[in-house]
Amino acid sequence: MALLLSCTTLPLPTVPMAPLGADTLAQRETGRFAFYSVTERTERVRYVAYWGDNATDSSGFLRAGDTVELTHAWSDTGLFAIRCRAQTETGKLSDFSPTHPVSIRNNAPLTPAGVLGPDTVGTDSAAEFRTATTDPEADLVTYVFTWGDGDTVTAPGYASGDTARMLHAWSGPGEYQVRTMASDVAGHRSAWSPPHAVVVVP
Questions:
Q1: Nearest to residue 12, comparing CAs of 34, 35, 49, 41?
Q2: What is the model's pTM?
Q3: What is the pLDDT of residues 77-133, one digit of tens each?
Q4: Residues with Cβ < 8 Å from 24, sequence gap 6 or more?
């Protein structure tokens, strides 16, 4: 007597919807993205997120149709396509979801509020001037000081928020406008700060 064996092939999980989240983020800023499926099936799945930068993350298992959030930050700038797959507890993977594009940008440092230092100095007397600013991505900051006499100086390698201190002396009397600007490691520059007037006396 022959036995008739019946095999049932489990279907693949439902293809998830496109991830939901921010369209634009700063470099190294953490973004939150939602992953979900539209389905009436009662299986449990987890979502495998592909961030477009060779990194992946997985959620815990939850009921198909429920929403889960995952976070990610990108170390590079550019346009990245986020997509995901649903995976059952038996290991079956759905096809890829539609993509969600996110643009990762690097912003210039904030314009320094100004230059701090003496209002009056003597000719050929070195005086200290200070400034500080922050970078949105916490990049290292380079400051450029212009002294109003044709000279400039560059001060690289400051952590975001740290104070840069520079010495300068003028060889002739008069009134000079001291300004500074900041740039980050990506080459993005702030505007020039408001001027700080220095009167140089004989």
A1: 41
A2: 0.69
A3: 999 999 999 999 999 999 999 999 999 999 999 999 999 999 999 999 999 999 999
A4: 102, 103, 104, 105
Beta strands in 13-126 (DSSP E): 20-21, 24-26, 31-35, 44-50, 56-58, 62-63, 68-72, 78-88, 100-105, 120-122
Angle at alpha carbon of residue 111, lines to 161 and 137, rounded to 5°: 50
Q: Do 20-105 and 120-201 share a fold?
A: yes
CB-count burial class (<10 Å; 0-12, 13-18, 19+) for 131: buried
Q: pLDDT value at position 1?
A: 47
Cα 47 from Cα 40, distance rounded (Å): 17
pLDDT band at 186 (very low <50, low <70, confident <90, very high): confident
Q: Where are the domains of the chain?
A: 20-105, 120-201
Q: 20-105 is classed in which CATH architecture?
A: Sandwich (2.60)
- Give whole-number Cα distances, 115 to 69, 129, 130, 136, 192, in Å: 44, 6, 6, 20, 11
- The yes or no reply on domain 120-201 and CATH 3.40.50.1100 is no
